[in-house]
């Protein structure tokens, strides 16, 4: 075997995999995993933070541009190193096995498994619209008085708090979905990709249908006029802006940009997971070509759909709805927070009930995007079109979308742990393929941990925590492109990053700026993510002490 791990696909870590994923399949894996539930709901929280249509679209445009820039940079690395494990391999070769392990550790602990758990519960939430008995609101077990709390000394609010432990029917539904898709993918990559292609085509059609409804069938001239009259003025009225401006003592533009950076969490998560396709390089046909192309086509398709979906929302619904209602809601939300902080839980419950009643009595247009019921912006648009069964159609569409997204994450994640095990940095059994050519042990271990996160009730918090860690590894990986250009100037590069070095450098700068902004604006959701990454350092040394760790640039040891 060549001592150059980049010489050609077919390294020992790739041996035994079945190359059954073509360009269309790879693109569908990216599209299907990126489009989960986020695009249907997160515009509500973004609008609450930024307050106007101009800032809403700026958040999505910037998140989309960053996604495309990152994918174009990854395409060079993927074409250069088309091996199973993808981003783990990129980090290992650019820096050292420690950095690859920290990425894999964080993926297993929260990024991949936490995403699987969270999206599985979202599937159940929307199933609850059709069958309330199976939804997350149907609590079947409650243990009161748990009172678990985790705080950091330099952050005012606790980063985690659980008063009661509950299990809902929705959680059980999420577990069943995870078990089913894990078992399906243990049967082979062919079965996994067929399901992925089917559900991705269906969810893409559903999203296009939503865009058509919003732009043409329920277009409101009044809503559009309200949204475009003051594209940028109004952000200063949001609680997020007032909090930043009072704490940071900065000018209007600086405060607005900081709020925008904090609001990008939802958009970035909704646009995430495109990098997962690199984990499956050992199963992609002609990976030097198809892997790089899929990283260009997949994110490009999704970002175009996301921007059109948000234009559809703005076409049908005013951002802040009725101005008087918006002010009343903001005042009640502030009152609820104050009552909670002052130790008056009963009074806070009464204020929350009043808020719920106010929103319940309001119409879809009065609530607008910022106060859409249960965060379901897409459902509000469909409700305008068909009040009786529009919400049910949207629930089915989101269930299709989330089911396909879970399948993609289940399929791709286990390939990362497989390569870690081949490098003696994970359980050895995870580094073995079954007779169908898939890492079944890794799939099962991933499924078990995802199920535990479902029952922990912390999946939403984990996703908030991990956005900072995700950005850290994106920055390190794209920065690794510069390092590998210097370390291996003669390595084969079938595709070269567009506008190198300017575009990759701009991507790194933008990610770093958002990371700094999140540390200032949302410390509760950033420091825990960094701590999760750092916990992997002692674990790495434990694993590496168990056996010889393969140095960067050296091929994996032979044998299955």
Short description:
The protein is globular, with a radius of gyration of 23 Å. With 560 residues, the chain is mostly helical. Helix 7 packs antiparallel against helix 16 and helix 18 packs antiparallel against helix 19.
Q: Mind explaining what this structure looks like?
A:
With 560 residues, this protein is mainly α. It contains 21 helices and 4 strands. The protein folds into 2 domains: 485 residues, Amino acid/polyamine transporter I (Up-down Bundle); 39 residues, no CATH class. Helices cover 67% and strands 3% of the residues. α2 packs antiparallel against α10, α3 crosses α18 and α5 packs antiparallel against α16. It is globular, with a radius of gyration of 23 Å.
What's the topology here?
Elements: H1 23-34, H2 38-50, H3 53-80, H4 87-94, H5 97-130, E1 139-143, E2 148-150, E3 160-162, E4 165-168, H6 169-186, H7 189-217, H8 221-229, H9 239-248, H10 252-270, H11 287-316, H12 323-341, H13 345-361, H14 364-367, H15 377-385, H16 390-422, H17 440-456, H18 459-487, H19 502-521, H20 527-534, H21 536-546
Antiparallel strand pairs: 1-4, 2-3
Helix pairs in contact: 1-7, 1-11, 1-16, 2-3, 2-10, 3-10, 3-11, 3-18, 3-19, 4-5, 4-18, 5-6, 5-16, 5-17, 5-18, 6-7, 6-16, 6-17, 7-11, 7-15, 7-16, 9-10, 10-19, 12-13, 15-16, 16-17, 18-19, 18-20
